[in-house]
């Protein structure tokens, strides 16, 4: 179960920071300036309203203050207060009989790594972005990070408890992809959010992801039931479809000091913080992946990752990343598997179970743990499990 | 002068890596797979071509191989071979009488920092992206990082020698901005590339940038004259307009061991590398800014940065970031200037020159140096100068 903070739908990217050892957690609300002060910002509001009126036929999404003024932030953000079906700026539209969201995205030059394919970090960022844009389109968005109006009223935030991503192919620089995202029920009080990534040119689905969310009271830090008011807001958006069907979710063992690879003294930097003053969760995943040896990363690509969130880490916490390889690590390093597969010499290689390696199914696993290094004891933050396949 | 590698127009983001102490520099070409091997990738090419033919009326941008097949990468990237005037996927269009480029961008949730505004890193990334998309639209793009066909033929790459960015306002999360970029002549053998960032909602220009580029032979690592063939390709795109008018460019002093702040033992990580196997230049800027004390960054925002590039760093180099504050650093730290400005108590504060501080013009400067730490001597990589203004 998640015991750390992660606001709604914005998924698994803002997580720790703001907590402290005495349990006095930080403020997770995004301050939307409803009483914008004209003198504080660079804009003259009267002039702005006129300018926008000229430029846009619909001002439905802009809220006016009691004094007839409009806050600078609202003019610049224009969060809709009613359901939208199309957003030409975001290249997004509502699909799936009015409840799913689809967005077109071009993979940018700085979003790819050395092999010219989008990094896992890029995919995770795009999941966060489309989830937020889905809530944006719904007209339910009450603050910058995805809480609904009913949640704000009840002081509730979303926390992610689990995330599972499967990647068959990575999009390349310049490729146009379509991301679909939707939500569904998860038990009585939870929500599932799923995604798919598809290539526009080929129609092939490259990646699938699913995540589970529960609600937490922002002040008490306790998990909460879903209030009827909130259920009323979000349940009309629930659909049954699942991006990844998991009969029995894989159990992730808890690593200890005997783990083969350990990175210690990891510390969040200022630039790791997002607009909720949390360490962005992509940072977590990077901490996990950076523990795997470079020579393995050079010849293998991640095909799946499962993350189980346990607690948030404080801004001043020192973090340890532990990593334990499955058997046969040497086979997947230094390109040995690749060379053998290319030579069609597959039958000549056997895995740890004595069976021959098969080019189409051969994958390799690592188990991960991020924990805080306390003075008296260590505390679990995230357990992870990654699977990899050879780059051919 | 630049003596490190930076490919064309892609501007100042891929710079070091690939060089070594014996002068044997890495390969800077992006391998575009012209002889795509159907068996290597996940796609069936015949089926794909049919699928694309059905989906798209124009196949002008896709090149067929001698055997009638089409490379997988080309299908997925679709780099145009002729000038395009509009790209609906990138939300880009050709402006300025056919030679400038404009692109609409929405600031994404993961591109903003703790104060909900886009980071400098985000702006620099968007400069790179729009520069590349400008070349993309021109039909001149011969490889993934911006070299023209004539440059590829002559084994030339672009290297950036200078960059100057001015930021009046930072865009906020969800804000729609328009980036304009264009190129011009710089001396006999150089090129200037400029940018502006404008808010779509308000029409206000938020940021301006200019950069200077020269050509380098990829093998010899020597600067090169611009061949007539290349001048013929790019000079029709030159215009005179300048985003920033600099009568006399500011001289940046070279720091030494006496600098007040020093971060040592900085080392590029695998995830810092881009598709040219270089450390992405945003990393350079981050190394500079992370040397400034947190308490200063909390109450001030960057209003300008000038970067002078001297040499690339190798993948195994250890880097030192030096930083020297101007006088009066204490005034700009801990919110003292802000508090006084807010109280309209401006006349009560004087700067180091004995003159009162003025709310509209008060800025503060740091000088920066990134250098490699060699065994026998240190070598300059980048000199920098940043100016800051109080966050109000």
Automatic annotation (TrEMBL), chains A, B:
**EC annotation from Swiss-Prot or TrEMBL:** 3.1.2.-
A GO molecular-function annotation = fatty acyl-[ACP] hydrolase activity
Name the predominant localization.
Answer: plastid
Q: Which branch of life, at top level?
A: Eukaryota
Compartments, as annotated in UniProt: Plastid, Chloroplast
Which InterPro entries does this entry report, sorted A to Z? Acyl-ACP_TE_C, Acyl-ACP_thioesterase_NHD, FATA/B, HotDog_dom_sf
CC annotations in GO: chloroplast
Explain the purpose of this protein. Plays an essential role in chain termination during de novo fatty acid synthesis.
Give the protein name, as stated in the record: Acyl-[acyl-carrier-protein] hydrolase
